[in-house]
Amino acid sequence: MRKALWMFLAVGAMACGVIGLKGRAAAQAGTLLQPGAVAPNFSLPTQVDNVSAGLKDYKGKYVVLYFYPKDMTTGCTIEAHNFERDTAKYAAANAVVLGVSLDTVESHKTFCSKDGLNFKLLADPDHKVIDAYGVPVAARGDNKFANRDTFLIGPNGKILKVWEVKDIQAHSDDVLAAIAEARK
To answer: Which of 6, 63, 77, 130 is most solvent-facing, going by the fewest CB within 10 Å?
Structure first.
């Protein structure tokens, strides 16, 4: 009886250890970069033919780097339209908006054309930038989607604020308010 109890405890301890390691690895894989961190540089293709965009292209500006799940879906379309609506406000605040998803350049071209979007959408199908910023990726069948997270990067290249976006309607206004506060 004692031997069976010890075996049960040993197996349970090993199982907890394995589960704990898997949980820790998953948390590290999806750990968002935090304010104060230096924003990783990147270069990704955009919806504009033969044009890539990277953080270094916007040195000295505020960069709104927003990650979103999928082109031409309801929530992503609302979020993109709100950023587009506020383009002049971002320009006046010395800021640029860059959207990033796992979608392809062709998908971005269609999305921008169909919805009249003029800011750059960056294609990250290999999720290099998504992973560099710690943005979690969810899978539904064979499809993968980045979480809806936004980073405000200051002119010095450091992350000023991070949003795990819940309120799509107010998000652009929230970002503009954060830029105004940072500029004080």
So the answer is: 6
